[in-house]
Amino acid sequence: MRSDSDIKRDVEEELKWDPDIDATDIAATVKGGVVNLTGFTRSYSQKFEAERAAKRVAGVVGLANDIEVRVPAADERPDPEIARDTVAALRNQLPVSSQNATATVKNGWITLEGEVEWNYQREMAENSVRWLKGVRGVTNLLQVKPKISPADIKRKIEEAFRRSAEVDAKRVTVEAREGEVVLKGTVRSWAERQEAERAAWSAPGVKKVDDRITISA
């Protein structure tokens, strides 16, 4: 098991190494393998990337992202402008399913609501607006409405695990019921746990993933 001081050092180095992050005003503390990021960034995308960078570090078992987004005055925009760009981005990335999605903006914070058929559409919607100028945060309330049986969901996820070079399918079990998936088992790293959850979310009809996988060296 890696020490907290080693994890802290590597998180700080990973933040500095990532070209999409200005880590000048970001601080990291680690306790029991759980990382807490504090400080501020100048865009929501940098806050998001800082979290991704920290999760890449070996030994990280949990993370709290308390970074504050402080948009520079030159990048501040009124909510109606952000809302118009949000709608345009959704229509560009999801020309069909965007018809069932709505976006509201308050103080630079975007809230997405509505329904999509696949989780990748839910993720794509958020990805398409995360980088808009002036955005302080995104709340994704889009719901996935499945059109597939629980047995088929379970089978497709298990098949995805077997194909994956990053997930040991023998160490992870899958339960599925009405579009909700429960993952159990033990993996070797945070990255493997994330890959298992990503694979589960990628299955058609999945609307919720309860990731109970534990990490063990």
Question: Can you describe this structure?
Answer:
The chain has helices at residues 4-17, 44-55, 79-93, 119-130, 150-163, 190-202, and strands at 26-31, 34-41, 62-65, 68-69, 101-106, 109-116, 137-140, 143-144, 172-177, 180-187, 208-211, 214-215. By secondary structure, it is α/β, with parallel strands linked by helices. The strands form three sheets. Strands 1, 2, 3 and 4 form a four-stranded mixed beta sheet that branches. Strands 5, 6, 7 and 8 form a four-stranded mixed beta sheet that branches. α1 crosses α2 (44-55). It starts with a helix and ends with a strand.
Describe the structure concisely for a colleague.
This protein has 217 residues and is an alpha/beta fold. It has helices at residues 4-17, 44-55, 79-93, 119-130, 150-163, 190-202; strands at residues 26-31, 34-41, 62-65, 68-69, 101-106, 109-116, 137-140, 143-144, 172-177, 180-187, 208-211, 214-215. Helices cover 37% and strands 28% of the residues.
Poorly predicted sequence stretches spanning 5 or more consecutive residues: none
Give the radius of gyration: 19 Å
Strand residues, percent = 25-35%
**Oligomeric state of the chains present here:** single chain
Q: Total number of helical segments?
A: 6
Q: What does the overall shape look like?
A: flat
Mean pLDDT score, rounded?
Answer: 91
Structural classification: alpha/beta
Order of helices and strands: HEEHEEHEEHEEHEEHEE
- How is the biggest beta sheet arranged? 4 strands, mixed
Number of strands: 12
The level of helicity is: 25-40%
**Distance N terminus to C terminus?**
7 Å
